[in-house]
Please model this.
Amino acid sequence: MATKNYPDPILNEKLRDRYYHRDQSNPEFTKEIEKIAGTMAHMCFQCGTCTAGCPSAPRSSYRIREFMRRAVLGLEDEALTDPDLWFCTTCYSCTDRCPRDLAPTDVIMAMRNLAARRDIVPVNFLKTVQAIYSSGHGVPNNDVNRAAREKLGMTRDPPTTSMYPEYIKGIQKILDHYGLKERADRIIKEREG
Amino acid sequence: MAEAVSPTTSKKPETPRIGVFICHCGTNIAGSIDIDAVKEYAKTLPNVAYVDDYKYQCSMPGQVNIREQIDANKLTGVVVAACTPRLHEPTFRAASKDGGLNPFRFEMANIREQNSWVHMHDREGATEKAKDAVRIAVAKAALLEDLYPKSVPVERAAMVVGAGVAGMQAALDLANAGIKTYLIEKEPSIGGRMSQLDKTFPTLDCSQCILTPKMVDVGRAENIVLMVNSEVEDVEGYIGNFDVTIRRKATGVLSPEEAEAKGIVGGGCTGCGDCGPVCPVTKPNEFEMNMAPRKAIYIYHPQVVPLLYTIDWDSCVKCGLCVEACGEKKAIDLEMQDELVQVKVGTVILATGYEVFPIENKEEWGYKRYDNVITSLEFERLICASGPTGGHLVRPSDGETPMRIGFVLCAGSRDNTGIGKPYCSRFCCMYSLKHAHQIIEKIPGAVPYIFYMDIRSFGKMYEEFYYRIQDEGAKFIRGRVSNIQEDPVTKNVTVYVEDTLLGRPMEIELDMVVLAAAVQPTELTNKTRKLFGVSCSQDGWLLEAHPKLNPCGTTTAGVFLAGACQGPKDIPDSVAQAEGAASAASIPIHKGEVELEPYYAMCIEEKCAGCGMCVNLCPYQALSLVEKDGRTVMQVTEAKCKGCGTCGGFCPGGAIWMNHFATPQIVAQIDAFLLGGEQ
Model:
């Protein structure tokens, strides 16, 4: 996608070359997605059922159908560098309803995995890794929750690592095995210094 | 092993001289098989007197060569290694016959469908397999015998099962060709689905108006024996001679003819309608998609053929009020019983039609949960002038006129989830366009929203119809509806869809949604097809003999298909196929006799112990035990025998000879395969 050199960056973006050329497609990308996701992504026929029922679509620019299309065409760079990739809540509504019996959610997860290999992950996702590493929870318990739980007659902490912090070590061992925490730390440091 | 001898007598012993002809089929075979290698190999086989190859063996020069070589080399058998016998066995049999051989001295080796096409990337393996196939065929050809097909007379009558538009058309054509035709219909009236429709696309003529003349014709046709409320109970026999048992369900009402037969002069049902109003039982009318009431004694609608009332035994309380109202006509018999009727026909056409898939199984669209979500057939009744609302389209929830109406296409069609149907139902696009037109025409200011994936307007004048409806103001949104939600207070329904062309999710509140539900074969189709020995495809639609070259035939000789039972079909296609099926079904009847393949079983009486085990095993009731020279032996009714071999394979004494598939012939084939070239 060649760009022309207009002085105005908005104009430059608006007037850039839009043609699709075959070399933008990587057939291996489609195959890899299918291998990781375990679904025949190339069979999508673009009916839009996925986007129509997607809770994220009406409140964001995320279009699951467009990611399916990129999977079909093997548009690897376009898919992996699009920040919308991270707007899926993984609710699986699309997977439930897809008439071709595909699993668009799993395609998104596969794309996220491939993006992560290139260090393309939003910082908030990485901070979640850090939170899990330190507390065993992606969303650790806090005082507001504790008060609410008490009011409902429950223990202040749920019977998880919140109540038994000695088990956090086990979770850390798993994350260390995959080098996930180390990776998150490194990328956050690169981005935020 | 070869001790069994043919019971055919006066056979002069001969040394087999087999000719082998190897076909290239262009590159279909020659592209993956080394023809020269197979040819050289064939020359080394015992009994082979001549070997040749040709680019297209089925072409005229190919056939002529077979004919000439039979004569030149005094051949006693011919092997052609080519495609499947289903395609060219008749061709090469004819060529062998032209050369002066009995056509059953011909044997085919399939080296295309079962070899070159499936082993395209293994030339060496395919060549070896072709050698095996030729060797095996030669072994059998050396033992083949002269056989003579038998002709059996064809009963000069036909049967059509199902009296929708396809069945009616087929029956009318047959009747007009001078053939007595039994038309069997399970419902109380003929007419089928088409009689439920309001208008037909793309011409917009009134469905009833164009159908009722045909219904009347059927009712009046001298050659048509109409049996409504009837189902096929049992089928025996074969092409030319089907013995069909029909169950005529008790309707509780006598026709004028039936009444007269019972000695009630001037009696029987005239359709006067005196009985209905006095009946105390009210039930939903199936014809009106259960949106209008009927009594326990009823007719579907005023134009039914035949015009006879029917009693619904599941709801009748036998109070006898109708009998009283009927009075002197004495048409009502509350004690009537089902009747079994036997008819003999030469050929049969199945036209069992379709029904709507239970779309409530796709829960996301809320059919049967939301009042204002209906199916297209319900819409047809609601918009039809003779329907329950007199043609005033209303919302089921409150009877108000809907102004914004959504049409969900591919509702359950093109669905691979296992809940819906994987195929396209073919006529939903077009009738939904027609529905859009109808609301624009009938309700000023009403807006149809058509949610579609593709508009498949493939027929004559169909694309033009699409153009017209778009011009009339229908809103087309290219996206499949993911889910529908109902407002519990207003009962309005909100459709969630993506306009895939804009890439934008949409939330559209509508007064009513019509689901263009997928179609499937009718409930009875499976039972009926099994009775006639007709196959079906994975999705239940009846299987034609060949999708392109024999779309009306089936693999059972003498049984043909018409209309939607073979696959979703609109009215023009159904009628066209019906006329084709009627033409095909009339051929054996007009010829007067059919030739049966001489593959029947024969009893070697000296060996038969008369145990009778084969008699019970035979699926075609072709065998029986008879007394002969003071012994009990088995006897074959050759016309009934299909040569399946069940008896021959079972017979403990080896007393059954299967023509053309005789034990020595099959053993020779097995030996040829297992022992390789050394026999």
